Fold each of these.
Amino acid sequence: MIKDELSEGVMFIPTLEVNIEMSPIEFEKYAIEILKAQIKGLENIKVIHNKIIEVEDGNYQIDGYIEFEIMGVKYKTIIECKHYKTSITREKVQVLYEKIRACGVNKGILISTSNFQSGAIKFASIHGIALIQLTESGPEYQTRSRLNVIMNSPRTPYVEGAKYIGVMQTNFGSGITCSYLTDTNLSLGEFLRMN
């Protein structure tokens, strides 16, 4: 029985299962390289792997960090990478949200090797957090065409020379949408520029 799309704990599976053979550190570096391709054109950009952010209540180890300027204003984003085999729950996204608040940054990105539960997607969408799942770049994949229906797509997501592609997942209230982050789809850069 298929549960309602926005029920807590329901898993949303926009892509075929994929087993990414990388160490957690290799995965973090790979994920950050995917993000770099998405944020071209931003001014004074800094992308850092494994940053320590010192704040009043202690230090936070962050898997990745992006900083850029628009019209003299600095925008800061922290990146969490989860090399998991189980789905990402709302609680994992809430932990990232607390880091965003504690570190005083503008946005957060959570990149995973596994799927996201619908409650995690809903929470992330409300709180300005991008959720990205990595899947293979090239082979046939599955995507949702409408609520609770998974279908094969004849399109092949592809990024020149990349083994994996990012799939950004968002909830706009009427359903969950997937955006395959390719050379021509720069949805993440648009997400970072939004207030």
Note: The chain is about 25% helix and 40% strand.
Amino acid sequence: MTLYFQEFTSPLGNILLTGNGKAVTGCYFQDQKYFPVSGAQWRHADEDALLNEATQILQAYFACGKLECDIAIAPQGTDFQRKVWDALTQIPAGETRSYGQIAASLGKPGAVRAVAAAIGRNPVSILIPCHRVIGSNGSLTGYAGGLERKAALLKLEGADPILRLAF
């Protein structure tokens, strides 16, 4: 399957967007953990309408802190990972949840580590807002793009991780 990609520069560094022609499949900071390895099936696509729309959504987000994403996204992962990623999309901007709260919302309160691992593998960061998940004590932990970026994204959205954490 052909994977289309384009890059753009955000205030927090270069971002790689990938898509399959029907949906966005990846949104990665250039130096983040689990950055994808390109292959023969990758095609540079500056004129791809879907990726251009994703770029516009992200540019607007960085300008105002509001994420209005109504494009198709199709992250590749296990059924459990996709359930976790779907739960992340339910966290409103400006709010945070703990890994334990996400696990509990899935009916698996004992699966905090599995939830954390799934969140760490989110291939569509920002669009699936994994940066809104923090430690149970309000600390900023675990972000594949780096904790400085996580803090910056939360600040952009107006979140105070300690005061906004719902117990």
Note: Residues 163-167 have pLDDT under 50 and may be disordered.
Amino acid sequence: MDTEKEENISKGNIAEIKFKEWLDKHNIPCWYIQQDISTFSPALKKYFGSKRPDFMILLPHIGFIFVDVEHKKVYKDYENFALDGEETIKYSNLQRNFNIQVWFALSNEESCYKTWYWIPVSKVLEIGKIPKFKSSKSGMNFFAIPLSEFIQIGFGDSLDRLLSKCFLKEE
């Protein structure tokens, strides 16, 4: 495995640990979803391949949402995040076929994992329509999503901030 890929995996693992710390700090019920291939039903592969969300967050009296936690840097020149097009479409298939909400929660070491940027997969597709650019390095398609489209949650904020932002439009 090349050094850059190992570094990205390590950063992703750190993001998941920091996200779990935030969940625990606010006493938010959740399940961490084991990423081991043997824990994954082969029947689900047709819906979203071998990739799966990292957490299931339980919302009392509502149900649950899946959350894919990712370490992502902001593209400062464009003030956006780049989200993997194929992964987003696979999560959208999971959402549509099973009526399960899937969200991305992004952060990075620049913010010391103190700010999380949340967005539902459905909104990524609504805003992006089609992937906006193709990486010359990996050949992967990405959606470029402006920062203004994300719900920002600070480490001190609880999940109620996310829910209130979903239901209340700021003027």
Note: Helices lie at 3-25, 45-48, 85-98, 121-128, 159-167.
Amino acid sequence: MKQNEEYIIPVGGLSLGEHKINYLVDGAFFNAFESSVIANCAVNLGITILKESSMLVIDFSQSGNLTLACDRCSYDMNVSVSGENRLIVKYGDEDLQEEDDVVIVKDTKGRLDLSQYVYEYIHLQIPQKNVHKEGGCNTTVLDRLDKLNGTIKDSSAIDPRWEALKNINQNIQQK
């Protein structure tokens, strides 16, 4: 992962109180990460930092559009996302992550890199299933998949195993 300098916050120089930062996260941000499924995006990210004497409370609010590969046809599709997350940064003797949303950093540290959290929080907004709306998938790909799966067959040819079952009700009634 390349370092995104604009997401490094100089928390040592912030005064106590609330601070707001706005970003437009685009595809260049996700290109810095090796395993991102996001091809391109335009996400408005608002970060509110509440600095207190013993900790930071950082609220992330993101909304926008992502370009992802369709799970069915693999062609690009747009997905709208929005969400909010909170990160609590406490000061301690060593750097460690206490819980998913609580991090402990050394008190002497003057900078905090938020790029990994931005990456994760936007990825958490991706739906589990990404499929074009009905009729939106590439029909050439779908036809090829149907052919490879064997679902397109001659409708006049009936599998002999099923032919025997066609008359099952008549056979039962005769007995």
Note: The chain has a mean pLDDT of 83.
